[in-house]
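Entry 14. Ran structure prediction on the chain below.
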Amino acid sequence: MGSFPVPHKKFSLEIKGNKTDVVICSYDDHFLVIATQIGAMGTILQARKEEGMAIHPTFNVSVIFGKRDEVRLPVHFSLLALYIPC
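Output, structure tokens:
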């Protein structure tokens, strides 16, 4: 991971035939994940891991900025959050 000004990791991958750029920034108490297929930020979502005794982690996902009527975004985002080390 790079370390200036914030530790981060950048990579690209292909999702359903579309090049997707991803940046993951690591802060003391959270991660910032930016994923784009258009080269710019669009909808900004936040996922908070819910505390509890559940075997499988669950996340409360909310839209910070952008499309609020796209019901699939929070679902996909919560699935992505499962793969980010906490």
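The radius of gyration is 14 Å. Will compare against last week's run tomorrow.
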